[in-house]
TrEMBL record:
InterPro entries linked: P-loop_NTPase, RapZ-like, RapZ-like_N, RapZ_C
Residues at which ATP binds: 16-23
Positions with a binding annotation for GTP: 67-70
Domain RapZ C-terminal intervals: 171-289
One Pfam family, short name: PapZ_C
HAMAP family in the cross-refs: RapZ_like
Alphabetized UniProt keyword annotations: ATP-binding, GTP-binding, Nucleotide-binding
Entry GO MF terms: ATP binding; GTP binding
Record-given protein name: RNase adaptor protein RapZ
Organism in which the protein naturally occurs: Formimonas warabiya
Start and end residues of each RapZ-like N-terminal domain: 10-165
Length: 297
């Protein structure tokens, strides 16, 4: 997020892949009191911000949806953002992401045409859109992967990010995942813990998860796991204040093992507990914990 002398208002730029959930995000922001504009031509952003600054605080929270529906106007977004930076106007880019398979399914379910492939294959439009948005994705302050999120879960994430008592405070999500199901698209930091012994190969532990005591004991009593936790938590304690100092508002730390049910779950919980003790606002997400049909507590 850019530092600014214009602190009387904030601008959230919502962008990302078509079908990734931008409409749901904008509805959630409206519920939080944001003034929302969908598909504003980028060339109008500087003039729009002037109007906001003249509202005397009546429009202090603004969300703008910008995507490839802008057609020939979309490339002008980068120039508009440059103008905002030169005027020291505060803005944040939120990028909505999803896997190709998820996006294709959503377009087929809604029977909508992809804006870049009105007469062609949906996947061709998605591929072209990824290329067009690559630079903007790299500029994003926050990436939200909606591939495995329900509308309710996406709304909860938006509420978590933008509710009044969270503004200006770095929030951290610790996520466990399984490499066999793919990398989390919205992770800022990813660590692979497949170097540890796998409880999956123990028949008595296989049906359980990293939230069960017997699996926790198996993972955490291993000397290498103890050393890893000490060193990795030490690294995070060094990094997190620097992320916060640079204006980052949300940090996703992903812990991955093979299936996302045992080692990564146990270690994610332990790392989250350590960060909470240091006063950080932490939430936990176990993305793949139930995909193998393991037992729940």
């Amino acid at each position: 997020m850019q530092e600014s002398k214009h602190r009387e208002f904030q601008i959230e730029i919502i962008t990302g892949m078509s079908g990734a959930g931008k409409s749901q995000v904008i509805h959630s922001l409206e519920d939080l009191g944001f003034y929302c504009v969908d598909n504003l031509p980028p060339t109008l952003i500087p003039k729009f911000t002037e109007l906001i600054s003249q509202s005397r605080g009546k429009m202090n929270k603004v969300a703008l949806v910008m995507d490839i529906r802008g057609g020939e106007f979309f490339p002008a977004l980068f120039e508009a953002l440059s103008q905002l930076r030169s005027k020291e106007i505060n803005y944040e880019i939120i990028f909505l992401e999803a896997s190709n398979e998820t996006l294709v399914r959503r377009f087929k379910e809604t029977r909508r045409r992809h804006p870049l492939a009105p007469q062609g294959r949906i996947l061709e439009g998605i591929t072209q859109e990824r290329i067009m948005l690559q630079e903007l994705r790299g500029m994003a302050d926050k990436i939200i992967d909606t591939s495995d999120l329900t509308n309710r879960q996406l709304k909860d994430q938006v509420l978590e990010l933008f509710s009044e008592n969270k503004q200006g405070q770095l929030s951290i999500t610790i996520m466990s995942f399984g490499y066999k199901y793919g990398l989390p698209l919205d992770a800022d930091l990813i660590i692979d813990v497949r170097f540890l012994p796998n409880p999956f190969y123990n028949e008595t532990l296989r049906p359980f998860t990293g939230e069960h005591e017997q699996v926790k004991n198996f993972v955490l009593t291993h000397p290498v796991a103890k050393t890893f936790l000490r060193k990795y938590i030490g690294l995070l304690n060094f990094l997190i204040p620097h992320y916060a100092a640079e204006g980052k508002t949300h940090l996703v730390i992903a812990i991955g093992c093979t299936g996302g049910q045992h080692r990564s779950v146990t270690l994610a919980n332990r790392i989250a507990k350590s960060l909470v003790r240091r006063g950080y606002h932490v939430s936990i997400s176990h993305r793949d914990i139930l995909k193998a049909g393991v037992k729940q507590e």
